[in-house]
Amino acid sequence: MSLGGLILAGGASTRMGRDKALLEADGATLLERAQALLAEAGCSRVLIAGRPDMDGGLPDLTPGAGPARAACDALLAMADAGLDLALVVPVDMPLLTPQSLELLVAGATAGAAAYERHPLPFCTRLQAQPLADAEPESMRALLQMLSVIWFPLDGMDERIFTNVNTPDDWRKLIGR
Questions:
Q1: pTM: predicted TM-score of the whole model, two decimal places
Q2: Which residue has the higher pLDDT, 61 or 122?
Q3: Peptide bond into 121 cis (omega under 30)
Q4: How far apart are CA 106 and CA 129, in angstroms?
Q5: 3-class SS string, 64-109
Q6: Cα–Cα distance between 140 and 142 in angstroms, integer?
Q7: CATH architecture, domain defined by 3-174
């Protein structure tokens, strides 16, 4: 099965005050980190939702409609491109590990897989028809439509699911 990666990076970053995808630590931007993470998790192709200005970028077909709509549109494009599975991560979750993503890929053979209490990241089997008809109002609604299986955290360090949304979040993360 072909596995593609999808980075959700089209938000306005209003709370951060600047583009989160371009925040840099240890010589790499959050976008570069997400691309490397998806490659390490086994993705043969990585696309970037909401960033038509970048290599591998996809436009938001409904700007301002939120991450669930952007993810749905990008997943439909991935299905149309012939990919079988999509591993979806937000650009602003820099502590994710390849191991945590590999578990989701293994669990998404029949539908979608995500961790309990955390709708992102997730992995899903790509099927164009349900995506074409979808009008998701939230990530959880999108995952339910995709027949999500919620994986237990089983002692996993939940800090890996930390989002970087504000300058204070960023300072805490990089220790400055």
A1: 0.93
A2: 122
A3: yes
A4: 23
A5: CCCHHHHHHHHHHHHHHCCCCEEEEEECCCCCCCHHHHHHHHHHCC
A6: 5
A7: Alpha-Beta Complex (3.90)
Q: Which residues contact 80 (CB under 8 A, 6 or more apart)?
A: 128
Sequence letter at residue 132: A
Q: Output the pLDDT for position 11.
A: 80
d(CA 46, CA 4): 6
Distance, CA of 1 to CA of 26 (rounded, Å): 34
Side chain identity at residue 52, one-letter code: P
Q: Return the structure tokens found at 147.
A: 């027949």
Tell me the per-residue pLDDT of 21-75, one tens digit each, with 9 for 90 and over: 999 988 999 999 999 999 999 999 999 999 998 999 998 888 788 888 889 889 9
Burial of 91 (0-12, 13-18, 19+ CB in 10 A): buried
Question: Would you give the DSSP letter of residue 152?
Answer: P
